[in-house]
Amino acid sequence: MQTETKSQPTKGIRQLAEHLNISIGTVSRALNGKPDVNQETRRRVLAAAEELGYVANQSGRSLRQGETKVIGLMIESSKETVENADNFFLGVTSGLQSVFARHKLDLIMLPCPSDEDPHEYLKRMVARRIVDAMIISDTQRVDRRIDFLSRAKIPFVALGRSLSAGNFPWIDLDFEGVADHAVKRLIALGHRRIAITAPSSEANLGYLFIDSYRRALERHDIPFDPSLVIRVRSSEQGGYQAAHELLLLEERPTAVILIYELMAIGLYRRLMESGVMPGRDLAVIGFRDAPRARFLQPSLSCFRISLYDLGVALGRMLLATMPAYRQFYPGGDRNIIWPLELMAGESDAFDVGAMV
Amino acid sequence: MQTETKSQPTKGIRQLAEHLNISIGTVSRALNGKPDVNQETRRRVLAAAEELGYVANQSGRSLRQGETKVIGLMIESSKETVENADNFFLGVTSGLQSVFARHKLDLIMLPCPSDEDPHEYLKRMVARRIVDAMIISDTQRVDRRIDFLSRAKIPFVALGRSLSAGNFPWIDLDFEGVADHAVKRLIALGHRRIAITAPSSEANLGYLFIDSYRRALERHDIPFDPSLVIRVRSSEQGGYQAAHELLLLEERPTAVILIYELMAIGLYRRLMESGVMPGRDLAVIGFRDAPRARFLQPSLSCFRISLYDLGVALGRMLLATMPAYRQFYPGGDRNIIWPLELMAGESDAFDVGAMV
DNA sequence: ACGCACTCCGTAAACGTTTACGACTGTATG
DNA sequence: CATACAGTCGTAAACGTTTACGGAGTGCGT
């Protein structure tokens, strides 16, 4: 005849009902805020649930309702992503969660193993019904995940454009604006030969970035020179290599635009090894800043982005596509070009006209 | 009279059974590799499942079996973590997944919102039965999560020691070894005043690091000077500030040990602003390297760690605590002190004895 | 002809929820 | 007094699996 132990979580709603001498139906209704339950009863149920530490089993609930109240953020743990090392996703995550929390939705991150096809991984995850909706990133030029999600009618939003599947919701960075701003700025400082780095992967981002760069140049009557597009990994190592290749060019450019700001570390290193001083002999502008850009020597001029705000926008756009939540987010755009703001530093703060 | 559309995923095992004209029990057994099913039948089932794109609904399965086949990796998306920006977790993730994949376990990352109590968050997640087991990190000095998981008998492993709950499985970095190695090395180069940076949070890591440092000093008959412990954030900004404080000390140290290698960026910057050259006027040794340390100027001497291997060890240790998988990982340690290897760079490559 | 072992498969219960439906009060309305 | 209605609550079905159990068929030895 031992007294009840309240240390472990309850066995389920049944036990809770039994403890209260009412039916499980009423308990469920009380917990879920359904209307037809007496105020006093509801109070008792909530109190007992709190006391016994009852939390609804998600499997049972999901099975019954056909939804999991979980949103998945798919990220690729590729070597490239790990090397970028800017905690990009963690930053976005906070913004996402601030939106989801209002609707009692949980966010989980789904890291696709590097040896698994992202498309297969995604299919597996949604088929298992672990999540109700998806946020995907690192969109490829043609991305089968987008076709799949569209056809399967899984709510989703992409961080990044793609050529796939007509009209899907996405947010992407304003490469056009960035390239235009950077080029215009450099030209005003007297530069004519402006190099750019781009990733060698199939990510759409690289294509868009280069296209924008090319158009920005042409708008200013500067011919596009393919040899000024340096294809390297987006890491410190890549930056080092990019500088190496820049130094080998017959007619050396006077400026370079980096697609990831961290590359500047390696780039600076290699330049200095050859006695070329960034911010004096070569202008450098970075992209997708993390605050660290301020602390490089010389400090990096760099396009900054608020990851939190980006996350909020992504979250809202996603919920707007889900019937159950659409009402809360009316009239938002289905596609957003996300603007970036230039934080001026010392790395391009000189007039090349004075040189030569 | 339209032909069947195979575009969307199947409605369930029932539909699949019906399509094959056999019972759902047999289908389930065939799919799960149970013994008592005819070879030919199994083949047909698997083929049909493939063709119709059937994947078992996880909710139904979890409900029946009481397990989810999902392991959770809890991470804190605190400002501090985002600032560290070393993609530490993504690195560990690959190692974990390589272990879990063998057992068809999936790994999800659970980012605890910064405005939610980690303990509450964890409770919510395991109560909802979203995961079978947990990997937690950023262990605090006293960490209620550990007591909770132990009492609730949820399999888990911690990345980081803690004073909480007697004997739980963990892996932690070899602070003792690192401090000893660094101090010994610096002393051999003639240093006597060696500073160190530590986080200001309640994370156990900071305490352990400082303790090890203190003991290493005392072992070499150097008195511990509290003013040489610089408490700053573990970011570039923190590095900048640390350098600032170092420069203000009446008797300036000749060496400094950084708890995060990224801090070196800000540190270098601040030093150079005052004409102090790292690697010549001040020795710098970093901790917990990312490869980027090699590309700083001067390159950072730094303790390196293989995140992948660490992930593998964590995964194995976790499975060893789970009854269903224990057999595959016999005789492993329940606690591991993870060694780090010093990658010598230029940042401490000078003999301070020659100075003064 | 019978029993037995073995292989294969169908039946149905169970997992923990939510929810449509109906039953039971008490009270207001005609 | 009959009826309607609102407020509560209990009952039972349903969600998609897995699995214990038993039955049907076959082959084989006696």
TrEMBL record, chains A, B:
InterPro entries: HTH_LacI, LacI/GalR-like_sensor, Lambda_DNA-bd_dom_sf, Peripla_BP_I. Keywords: DNA-binding, Transcription, Transcription regulation. Residues 11-65 form the HTH lacI-type domain. The keyword Nuclease does not apply. Pfam families: LacI, Peripla_BP_3. Signal peptide: none annotated. The keyword Lyase does not apply. SUPFAM superfamilies: lambda repressor-like DNA-binding domains (SSF47413), Periplasmic binding protein-like I (SSF53822). This is Substrate-binding domain-containing protein.
